Amino acid sequence: MLRTWTGARQRIPAVCQIRLLHNSQPVSSPATEASTSKAEPDAVVEAPKKWTPQSKRTGLIALKRGMTSMWNDQGVKFPVTILQVEDCQVTANIKTPKPDHTVYHAVQVAAVNRSPKSVTNQMQGHFRKAEVPPKRYVKEFPVTSDAHVPVGTTLSAIHFVPGQYVDCVAKSIGKGFQGVMKKWGFHGLAASHGVSVSHRSAGSTGHHQDPGRIFPGKKMAGRMGGKQVTVQNLAVVRVDTALNLVYVRGQVPGVDDAPIYIRDAKKVMDIGRHNAAKGKEEKILPKGVDDLPFPAGTDSLAKTLPPIIEAPAYRRSPFTPPE
User: Fold this and answer.
1) Which residue did the predictor score with more confidence, 212 or 282?
2) What is the residue-wise DSSP string for 200-266?
3) Are 263 and 234 within 8 A, CB to CB?
4) pTM of the shown model
5) Using CA atoms, how far apart are residues 220 and 258, in angstroms rounded to an integer?
6) At 33, is the secondary structure helix, strand, or coil?
7) Using DSSP, how many helices (H) and how many strands (E) does the chain show?
8) Residue 16 above 60 pLDDT?
9) What is the pLDDT of residue 135?
10) The dihedral formed by the CA atoms of 107, 86, 52 and 108, expressed in degrees to the nearest 10
């Protein structure tokens, strides 16, 4: 069961379970299906899609709003990063043939509305075709063929279920040109007599006449940070459906208000798919998560859920065997 908060200090038992989150479309009753079939004999009522171990969903674009602290059921304090999903909409579905006679499937997502004056004419036409406002950030997420989302769909923070694990991709904070002590953690030379002003240098970097060169990958002084970094296997501990907030345990690269690309944890899902392919009956999703919103967690689904949803007891590692 999940926990919901309706006040600052009032805690009420949950009225919904995670297993209900996979269904983003209402299922029609037998009476409704009968009436539909009478009115339209040729109409076919399709059952809502459901997530499978072979499915790969799209990710979301969120903004990093800062960090705070939370406490688990045992009273242990742990850090969390708050990510906000702001005006995240689907702008395109991509299907491209590949040389190996397969098809590349992807969903293009855009977030954060901006003034049309600051958008190029080409992008204005692209957003106009998708019938969405001009956006600031655009990102393409590879998906499986069954995980395409209709263009124009507004995605919500409930796309990620509390208790699951996610990967966060962002540009790290740039720190400029740094020496080996700050960049790589070298302890430096002895700061004593005879070393002069070289106590923060890297020391010897070359070799003998053979090979007579420096091997690629040598740790030396250079630019630090300012590049794309992926932090894997972060646990989602809370989702705020009212403010579209996702609370992930641990740190996320980037400065505040920077775009963060969130997706389902790749390693955790791949391990589950590998075990499922071998016929092992092993739970792919973490403890307490029965299903995922598929193909995506929409804004209409978020309106049917409590304002705050918390995850079950947090496990130390996503690779711990389920209980």
Assistant:
1) 212
2) TS-------TTT-SPPTT---SEEES-SEEEEEEEEEEEEETTTTEEEEES--SS-TT-EEEEEE-H
3) no
4) 0.76
5) 29
6) helix
7) 5, 14
8) no
9) 95
10) 0
Distance CA 309, CA 286 (A): 16
Both tokens of 198, joined, read 């070289």
Summarised one tens digit per residue, pLDDT across range 115-152 is 999 999 999 999 999 999 999 999 999 999 989 999 99
Gap between the Cα atoms of 147 and 93, Å rounded: 10
Residues 6+ apart with CB under 8 A from 194: none
SS3 per residue for 149-206: CCCCCEECHHHCCCCCEEEEEEECCCCEEECHHHHHCCCCCCCCCCCCCCCCCCCCCC
Q: What is the CATH superfamily name and number for domain 3-22+47-172+227-310?
A: Translation factors (2.40.30.10)
CB 4 within 8 A of CB 309: yes
What are the boundaries of each domain within the chain? 3-22+47-172+227-310, 175-203+219-224
**Sheet-wide strand order for 103-113:** 89-97, 103-113, 135-142
R_g over Cα of the chain: 24
